[in-house]
Write a structure and sequence with these properties.
Elements lengths: L2 H19 L3 H17 L4 H27 L16 E6 L7 E4 L2 E7 L11 E8 L2 E6 L2
Parallel strand pairs: 3-5
Antiparallel strand pairs: 1-2, 1-4, 2-3, 4-5
Length: 143
């Protein structure tokens, strides 16, 4: 079997395994094998093929992989609307119980209920917004 075909098969196998692992390392090695297949196809001797593979794999793993991982691990998109309120601090305007209450989130007043149904949160308490259910904020006092 021709060496370029072996390198091509190796590149394909590494690409398929990368799809299942999502580490970016095997994809880079697959790319190095693909580049080496090209050099093997033009008649580069076998020892130099291994040098090409080693150089391309090393460069891609040291320089391209960190860039690729930075793009993959990019923080999620910003939250908008009521989703942006979850996790924010709120100020209790009127007593919050399991059934009723009012809080100020940012500059807006919201109806509120206690996240823990056994709590009664007095006015003036700072709370965290745990969830938004319709037009009602479910809140829990800060510790």
């Amino acid at each position: 079997m021709d060496p370029w075909l072996i390198w091509l098969i190796t590149a394909a196998v590494l690409a398929v395994v990368e799809i299942f692992t999502l580490t970016a390392a095997l994809g880079m090695l697959g790319g190095a094998a693909l580049v080496t297949a090209g050099f093997a196809a033009v008649g580069l001797p076998l020892p130099l093929q291994f040098v090409v593979f080693t150089v391309v794999a090393t460069v891609s793993l040291l320089f391209l992989r960190p860039i690729a991982l930075r793009h993959v691990r990019r923080p999620g998109a910003q939250r908008f609307g009521v989703e942006a309120l979850v996790g924010r601090a709120a100020y209790v305007v009127s007593e919050v119980t399991a059934r009723s209450g009012r809080v100020r989130i940012g500059g807006e007043e919201w109806t509120a209920r206690a996240y823990d149904e056994t709590l009664v949160i007095p006015p003036g308490t700072t709370v965290d917004v745990m969830e938004i259910s319709g037009a009602t904020a479910l809140v829990h006092p800060r510790e």
